[in-house]
Specification:
Elements lengths: L1 E9 L4 E10 L4 E5 L6 H9 L6 E6 L4 E4 L11 H8 L2 H17 L3 H16 L5 H11 L16 H14 L4 E5 L7 H13 L3 E5 L3 H7 L2 E5 L6 E4 L3 H45 L9 H27 L25 E11 L5 E10 L3 E5 L6 H8 L7 E6 L5 E4 L12 H8 L5 H10 L4 H5 L8 H13 L5 E5 L7 H12 L4 E5 L3 H6 L4 E4 L4
Helix pairs in contact: 2-6, 3-4, 5-6, 9-10, 12-13, 12-15
Length: 538
């Protein structure tokens, strides 16, 4: 269906993809993973034809390829109907067919007939005539059958928008479907429905995701982009087998590099020792007995041999080929200094209600958080989880109820869009804004620990960073502060898997309080949730 042959892509400042080769065949379910900034979204855009490779080729047959957006911010002024009609290719197929029908009325040449036949084939393939029926079924499958499809997407909550994007996947008739983080903000029920749909579809899917359980359930093959000039690795395995194979490869890389370091040190020590002995043997010649020619000769010979040995070992040291360096694990630790044995009340929420309009009331919600608590705020898409958090933070008006926060506890809030405080400034300046007491060199080193490169740290404005890169800056801000309460809305969105695992470890060992919204099932399971608060459905 689609073959990528040694594809490279670079901008004027850096190489993004290097020597990428693989194929997508009928019915393939491929997971695309890799660190933030490795070029995963870029690769989807290359396959879709939105970008052109710097070198190499992407060979396609006649399959219809579609990339379905998960970021709805560019579609807020479109109606639900317009959005789904356009991203599924139905609008384009309808317009092409109408155009060729009009041409056929006054031109019956062979070329026009061929163009009409192509347009008719696409019209039938995308089931244009049945679109309204297919849309109704897709909305029902996405559990939003009651919404008004004539309303603009900007009128819907974040959770409802997520479901609308899901309905677009269900309504598509592409041969190859490209998905970029399809489970971001999608509740557990929606993820399960998506997994079942993908598993039962005849279409091929190439999916960027850092949701480990989704990758485990929905893919049968993993492609890992390494970033920059590192190329890619392909695993004809499911996710769990990929993790096992990758760990073995990682350990082998570590062993090779460790052996290289040992040999390098051994040759260096041996060369230095031989040089010292050679110099010592040579320097003793003038003090030896001039009448003992044999002793002279032996010492000269020994000095020559030792010098030759030192030179040989230095040469071998210079020829020693450095193997691939092992990856450095992301290390993350959140600190909160509290009085020993003393539990602090951090946050109290009592009968909180929010009027969302259209007779939609969120709540009432009541809970409290003390040091050591990890509270999961749970609810289906559209139930109002983010609205509750925004109400607690004073960003959304509340209709009734009380919120009391401990003024002595430093509260850090990270929203689901990874919003930086200084979007027009660098990652470094954003971090120093979040942690004013942090020295310059400490701030740089902290960002480097998150595998952020120099241009990302000091040059590129926050508004141009990827979601994962922004999230890393915010996590660095948490690590640099003595925060008593963390309020995190979908913190794993756009993060790469090593950073998610580091975040899990940090939260599990954090002794402050946590209020969290997350639909990442493995993540929720691993951080040690102490209580779950469900948003009432009204």
């Amino acid at each position: 269906m689609i073959n990528l042959n040694r594809v490279n892509y670079a901008t004027s400042s850096k190489e993004i993809l290097h020597d990428v080769s693989f194929s997508i065949n009928t019915g393939d379910k491929i997971g695309l993973v890799g660190p933030n900034g490795a070029g995963k979204t870029t690769l989807l855009r290359l396959i879709n034809g939105d970008l052109t490779p710097t070198s190499g080729e992407i060979i396609k047959t006649n399959e219809e390829i579609g990339i379905l957006p998960q970021d709805m911010r560019d579609w807020l002024d479109h109606s639900v109907y317009e959005f789904i009609e356009e991203v599924t290719g139905v609008k384009d197929a309808r317009e092409q067919f109408d155009e060729q029908c009009a041409n056929l009325e006054h031109d019956s040449s062979e070329r026009t007939l061929l163009l009409y036949a192509d347009a008719l084939e696409k019209y039938d393939k995308f089931e244009v005539a049945s679109f309204d029926t297919n849309l109704e079924k897709a909305l029902k499958r996405a559990d939003i059958s009651s919404i008004d499809t004539s309303k603009e997407i900007g009128n819907f909550s974040g959770g409802q928008r997520t479901r609308i994007a899901l309905a677009a996947v269900f309504a598509s008739r592409y041969d190859v479907v490209l998905l970029d983080e399809p489970t971001n903000n999608l509740d557990d029920k929606g993820v399960v429905v998506l997994e079942k749909f993908i598993g039962g579809s005849n279409a091929a899917f190439l999916m960027v995701s850092h949701d480990r359980r989704f990758l485990r359930n929905a893919t049968s093959r993993i492609i890992e982009l390494m970033g920059g000039d590192q190329g890619m690795r392909q695993y004809g395995l499911g996710y769990d087998e990929y993790v096992e194979a990758r760990e073995k490869a990682k350990q082998a890389t570590f062993n090779r590099y460790e052996q290289y370091e040992k040999e390098k040190k051994r040759l260096g020590r041996a060369a230095r020792a031989a040089r010292i002995k050679a110099n010592s043997a040579g320097s003793n010649r003038s003090n030896s007995d001039n009448d003992k020619l044999t002793a002279h000769f032996r010492k000269e010979k020994a000095a020559s041999v030792l010098a030759s040995a030192a030179s040989g070992m230095s040469s071998r040291l210079g020829q020693l080929e450095e193997p691939e360096r092992p990856e450095e694990d992301v290390s993350l630790k959140f600190l909160f200094k509290e009085e020993a044995g003393k539990k602090l009340n951090l946050l109290s929420v009592s009968n909180l209600e929010i009027d969302y309009g259209n007779e939609h009331m969120i709540g009432p919600v009541s809970f409290s958080i003390r040091t050591g608590d990890k509270i999961l705020l749970k609810g289906e898409n559209g139930s109002g989880k983010t609205s509750v958090i925004r109400g607690i933070m004073g960003e959304t008006p509340v209709s009734s109820g009380d919120v009391h926060a401990n003024k002595q506890a430093n509260v850090i809030y990270v929203d689901q869009n990874q919003t930086l405080p200084l979007p027009d400034d660098s990652a470094l300046n954003n971090l120093r804004h979040l942690a004013p007491s942090l020295e310059l060199h400490d701030a740089i080193n902290l960002l480097i620990r998150f595998n952020l490169k120099k241009d990302i740290i000091q040059v590129i404005p926050g508004s141009e960073l990827s979601g994962g890169e922004r999230a890393k800056v915010l996590l660095a801000g948490i690590a640099a502060n003595n925060a008593g309460l963390l309020i995190l809305d979908e913190p794993t969105n756009n993060l790469d898997i090593p950073t998610i695992e580091a975040l899990e470890h940090a939260l599990k060992n954090y002794n402050g309080g946590v209020l969290i919204v997350s639909h990442d099932r493995d993540f929720v399971q691993n951080i040690g949730i102490t209580n779950t608060i469900s948003i009432p459905t009204r």
